[in-house]
C-alpha cells in the first residue's frame, strides 16, 4: 500500500497548514509514537479543548466547521453530536469509532490507524470531552492486525502520560478507551449492526428510531463516528473554523480535506490527502498518473464498490458529495477504482454481487433473496446462458432493492454499481443472452436461492 500527499513530481509538500491529517507522517512509513507525535504539536488541541473550551463550544465549533462523516454517508458530524442528550443526570454514555473498514477498494482508515494512532486517540479524546462520554471503543476490522497492535500500544502510551484514564489533564474528566476487534462482517460498518456486534449479538441493523444517540450500546446514549472523521477534530479545534473551511476548493459544498485514492491498473496507485473539490481528472492523471501503458480507462468508481460506475468523460466532476451526485452517483469513501478496457463488466459485477450477497445479514427479504438472485442471473449471463428478459429482471431488482426498499443501506449500495453497469455497458450483458432463449417476463424466471 502506498501513501503519499505529494503532488506531481513531488512538488507539493505536506504541511500543517494544508494537510491536517497527514503532515505528521514519517517518510519511512513507520508509526508515529507518543514522543514524536507530541513533538509535532500532538495533543495540543486536546489541551486547548480541556483548558479553554466549554463542552458545548467544542460541539458548536465542529458544527460550524462543516465537518461531515468520512465513512461514506456524509452526515454532518456536529449535527450528530447535537443529538446526544443534554440531561446531565445521564452519566453513562459511549463513543464508538467505526473502524470496520470492509468496503472493497478502500484502505484509508487503515493507514491512519497504522501510522498515526495517536491522531485517532486525540480525536476521540476531544470528542469524548464534548459528548460527556466516559468510555470509548474502537471497533476494528479483525483483519487489521497491525492496526490493532499499534492502537493498543498507543492507548497504553496515552494512559501512562495521563491522557487517558482518570482525571485527564487535571480536568476531573475520565475517559477509558478500548480496542475491540470484530469477527469479519461487512454489515458491521452499519452503526447499529456494529453496536449489536459489540454487545455480543448477531450483527443485524436495528430499527431506527430510536437512534443510537438515545438508545445505543447497552441501552445508553452512544455516538458512532468513522476513523477519518474523528481524526479531523484535533485540527479543527487547534486552528479554527475559518481555516478549516478555507482548505476546500471553490465550488465545493464539503469543507476541509479528504483522503482520496485510486486503485486498478494505474501507474501510481495510492492514497493522498487532497482538498474537497479537486476534480476526478486531477486525481486520476496528476496523482495516479493515468493508466499503465497498454491499458485504456473504460470506467471508474469514485468511492468504493458500493458506488456507481462513471465514464471517462465524468472525470471532470469535482470530488465532493454534490459534485459526484451531479454525474449520477455518490462520493462514498473517496477511494476510486479504475476499470481498464480488458475487463468484462458482467464478470466484474458477478464478482461484486457475490461479495455483497455473502455479506448480507439476511434480516430483510429483498436483500437476503434479491442479491443471490442477481448473482444467479449474472453467472448465467457470464456463461452465455442468459435468457431473454434477464437484463430486465436485473433492472427490476435494482429498483426493488433501492433506497428506502430495504431495512438498511446494504442492498441499495450493492445494486447501485449493477444499475450503472447495465446503463453504460448494456451490450456486454446482451452478449450473454443465449440466441435461442425464449422471452421470459421480467421477474418471472424461477431462481433457487443459494444454488
From TrEMBL:
<dbReference type="Pfam" id="PF10589">
    <property type="entry name" value="NADH_4Fe-4S"/>
</dbReference>
<comment type="subunit">
    <text>Composed of 13 different subunits. Subunits NuoCD, E, F, and G constitute the peripheral sector of the complex.</text>
</comment>
<keyword id="KW-0411">Iron-sulfur</keyword>
<keyword id="KW-0285">Flavoprotein</keyword>
<dbReference type="Pfam" id="PF01512">
    <property type="entry name" value="Complex1_51K"/>
</dbReference>
<dbReference type="InterPro" id="IPR001949">
    <property type="entry name" value="NADH-UbQ_OxRdtase_51kDa_CS"/>
</dbReference>
<dbReference type="InterPro" id="IPR037207">
    <property type="entry name" value="Nuop51_4Fe4S-bd_sf"/>
</dbReference>
<comment type="function">
    <text>NDH-1 shuttles electrons from NADH, via FMN and iron-sulfur (Fe-S) centers, to quinones in the respiratory chain.</text>
</comment>
<dbReference type="GO" id="GO:0051287">
    <property type="term" value="F:NAD binding"/>
</dbReference>
<dbReference type="InterPro" id="IPR011538">
    <property type="entry name" value="Nuo51_FMN-bd"/>
</dbReference>
<keyword id="KW-0408">Iron</keyword>
<dbReference type="GO" id="GO:0008137">
    <property type="term" value="F:NADH dehydrogenase (ubiquinone) activity"/>
</dbReference>
<dbReference type="GO" id="GO:0046872">
    <property type="term" value="F:metal ion binding"/>
</dbReference>
<dbReference type="GO" id="GO:0010181">
    <property type="term" value="F:FMN binding"/>
</dbReference>
<dbReference type="InterPro" id="IPR037225">
    <property type="entry name" value="Nuo51_FMN-bd_sf"/>
</dbReference>
<dbReference type="GO" id="GO:0051539">
    <property type="term" value="F:4 iron, 4 sulfur cluster binding"/>
</dbReference>
<keyword id="KW-0288">FMN</keyword>
<comment type="similarity">
    <text>Belongs to the complex I 51 kDa subunit family.</text>
</comment>
<keyword id="KW-0520">NAD</keyword>
<keyword id="KW-0479">Metal-binding</keyword>
<dbReference type="InterPro" id="IPR011537">
    <property type="entry name" value="NADH-UbQ_OxRdtase_suF"/>
</dbReference>
<keyword id="KW-0004">4Fe-4S</keyword>
<protein>
    <recommendedName>
        <fullName>NADH-quinone oxidoreductase subunit F</fullName>
        <ecNumber>7.1.1.-</ecNumber>
    </recommendedName>
</protein>
<dbReference type="InterPro" id="IPR019575">
    <property type="entry name" value="Nuop51_4Fe4S-bd"/>
</dbReference>
<keyword id="KW-1278">Translocase</keyword>
<feature type="domain" description="NADH-ubiquinone oxidoreductase 51kDa subunit iron-sulphur binding">
    <location>
        <begin position="346"/>
        <end position="391"/>
    </location>
</feature>
<keyword id="KW-0874">Quinone</keyword>
<dbReference type="GO" id="GO:0048038">
    <property type="term" value="F:quinone binding"/>
</dbReference>
Amino acid at each position: 500500500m502506498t501513501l503519499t500527499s505529494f503532488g506531481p513530481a513531488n512538488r507539493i509538500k505536506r504541511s500543517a497548514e494544508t494537510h491536517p491529517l497527514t503532515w505528521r507522517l514519517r517518510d519511512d512509513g513507520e508509526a508515529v509514537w507518543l514522543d514524536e507525535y507530541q513533538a509535532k504539536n500532538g495533543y495540543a488541541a486536546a489541551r486547548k479543548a480541556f483548558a479553554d473550551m466549554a463542552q458545548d463550544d467544542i460541539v458548536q465549533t465542529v458544527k460550524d466547521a462543516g465537518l461531515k462523516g468520512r465513512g461514506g454517508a456524509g452526515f454532518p458530524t456536529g449535527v450528530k453530536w447535537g443529538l446526544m442528550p443534554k440531561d446531565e443526570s445521564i452519566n453513562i454514555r459511549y463513543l464508538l469509532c467505526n473502524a470496520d473498514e470492509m468496503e472493497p477498494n478502500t484502505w484509508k482508515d487503515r493507514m491512519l490507524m497504522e501510522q498515526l494512532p495517536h491522531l485517532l486517540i486525540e480525536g476521540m479524546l476531544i470528542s469524548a470531552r464534548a459528548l460527556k462520554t466516559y468510555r470509548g471503543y474502537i471497533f476494528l476490522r479483525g483483519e487489521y492486525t497491525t492496526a490493532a497492535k499499534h492502537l493498543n500500544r498507543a492507548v497504553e502510551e496515552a494512559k501512562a502520560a495521563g491522557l487517558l484514564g482518570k482525571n485527564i489533564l487535571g480536568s476531573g474528566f475520565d475517559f477509558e478507551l478500548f480496542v475491540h476487534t470484530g469477527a469479519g462482517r461487512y454489515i458491521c460498518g452499519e452503526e447499529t449492526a456494529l453496536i449489536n456486534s459489540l454487545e455480543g449479538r448477531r450483527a443485524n441493523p436495528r430499527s431506527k428510531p430510536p437512534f443510537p444517540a438515545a438508545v445505543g450500546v447497552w441501552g445508553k446514549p452512544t455516538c458512532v463516528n468513522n476513523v477519518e472523521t474523528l481524526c479531523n477534530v484535533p485540527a479543527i479545534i487547534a486552528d479554527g473554523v475559518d481555516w478549516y473551511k478555507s482548505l476546500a476548493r471553490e465550488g465545493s459544498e464539503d469543507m476541509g480535506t479528504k483522503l482520496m485514492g485510486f486503485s486498478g491498473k494505474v501507474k501510481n496507485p495510492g492514497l493522498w490527502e487532497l482538498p474537497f473539490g479537486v476534480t476526478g481528472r486531477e486525481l486520476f492523471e496528476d496523482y495516479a498518473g493515468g493508466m499503465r501503458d497498454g491499458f485504456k480507462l473504460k470506467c471508474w468508481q469514485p468511492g468504493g464498490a458500493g458506488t456507481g460506475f462513471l465514464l471517462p468523460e465524468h472525470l471532470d466532476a469535482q470530488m465532493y458529495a454534490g459534485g459526484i451526485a451531479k454525474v449520477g452517483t455518490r462520493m462514498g469513501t473517496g477511494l476510486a477504482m479504475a476499470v481498464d478496457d480488458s475487463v468484462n463488466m458482467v464478470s466484474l459485477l458477478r464478482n461484486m454481487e457475490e461479495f455483497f450477497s455473502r455479506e448480507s445479514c439476511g434480516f430483510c427479504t429483498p436483500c437476503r433473496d434479491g442479491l443471490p438472485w442477481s448473482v444467479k442471473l449474472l453467472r448465467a449471463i457470464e456463461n452465455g446462458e442468459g435468457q431473454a428478459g434477464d437484463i430486465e429482471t436485473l433492472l427490476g431488482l435494482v429498483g426493488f432493492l433501492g433506497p428506502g426498499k430495504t431495512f438498511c443501506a446494504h442492498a441499495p449500495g450493492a445494486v447501485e454499481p449493477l444499475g450503472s453497469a447495465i446503463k453504460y455497458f448494456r451490450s456486454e450483458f446482451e452478449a450473454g443472452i443465449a440466441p435461442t432463449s425464449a422471452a421470459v417476463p421480467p421477474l418471472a424466471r424461477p431462481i433457487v436461492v443459494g444454488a
